[in-house]
Sequence to fold (503 residues):
Amino acid sequence: MSDQSLELKGSLFPLSVLFCQDLSVDTLRQQLQQKLAQAPGFFVQAPVVINVEQLEQAPDFAAIKQMFIELQLVLVGVCGASNELKKAAHAHGLASLQLSKNNKPTETAKPQAAPAAPATPQVITAENRLIEGNIRSGQQIYVKGADLIVRGTVGAGAEVIADGNIHIYGSLRGKAIAGAGGDASKKIYCYNMQPELISIAGNYWLSDNLQGPFWGKAVCIGLQDGQLALSELF
Amino acid sequence: MAKIIVVTSGKGGVGKTTTSAAIGTGLALKGHKTVIVDFDIGLRNLDLIMGCERRVVFDFVNVINGEANLKQALIKDKRLENLFILPASQTRDKDALHKEGVERVLNELAEDFDFIICDSPAGIESGAMMALYFADEAVVVTNPEVSSVRDSDRILGMLASKSRRAEQGLPGIKEHLLLTRYNPERVIKGEMLSVDDVNDILAIKLLGVIPESQAVLNASNSGQPVILDTESDAGQAYLDTVSRLLGEDVPFRFLNVEKKGLFKRIFGG
Fold:
């Protein structure tokens, strides 16, 4: 029997990483306060790691630690530190963490950025996908950068998503999302329309909006002047 | 080579165990050596429906763990020469099953039997996945109501993507639809989906329609598979179902409301 009273196990936890060009205490305090004011309560006692990749000189870790306590944040450590910075961090009881490759500040993150409006529609170059048979409840199909053709029925609770057009040679009872990359010219075609949701380039209707003469019919769905529009398939 | 048939549904309480017992017994009646395996670890029911609950000594999990061999765990049916039951463990949970163990037991069974019926637990978690993983054919048990139909649709998706046949790129599992608790009177009143409605949504081959019947409950309570009650409509419908499973062409019965004759009207049906 091994001793069960003490165990050390590796685990992964989400940590907020702070990216800031200027780590002088006053600037940092001001910027942090602004950020925290946007979501009061959300970051209370949140564990934070500071990215010090861009720094050449060690900041005043003692003052920063004190400020974090005042702002109700928990400073865990630093990441991306040079050997010199590591030593400085260790001296103040901070951990130095390894930087993961994909953890870079988001380039597009600007304050008050407009809601993710796709600027340029994706150019369709990929190969269309053909599915022979039914798509059952719980299944999800996504076709990146191309059309999806289903020779069967899309069941209730199933989802078909494509950056291009969606063609369904059967009933559509689940969700269909065409032009997922933002291309408003894409369309959904189906032989029997009774979906839970249809969406083209982010404009969507639920089944409640679709009850009417087109329900259960062969229908083509497209965007006209930013509005979803239905028309008979033939 | 034995044929492995999973009886599954997604939704609970639709009649999987009743169907497993009936189909297994029916196949044995027709002279095929059959074993019914209870995959519902922790919620053992098949032994009750088969009326062998007092003879369970070792179970499926014991065999997987090597604590007993198959001969010790298999329970021979007292009514039929060709019929065996492999009971589930009541004291364990679904995690006690693992692919390697299940495969080993099924392979061992396949040497001896013509048919292996896997009685799946409800749900889409590991227990149900284990029951369907090795299947050659699937009987999807569905009640004529919307939630059961949707859950069956989900299971059909799993059969097509999560089974050994799907993973190894072999021809897919042969899917059969079995509609249970069918009540033509309520279908006419619009309280229940019709055979056509369900067929339209699930779009797989209809294997049988079992009418809603008091005989099923009576059979369960007495530990006699309902298929042995040849007087009952449900028993006859299961016999037809087994014939179809074996490839015979049998017309569907009990789909319409029975017209009551003069005698029945006077004396009650």
About this structure: Chain A touches chain B through 14 residues (CB under 8 Å).
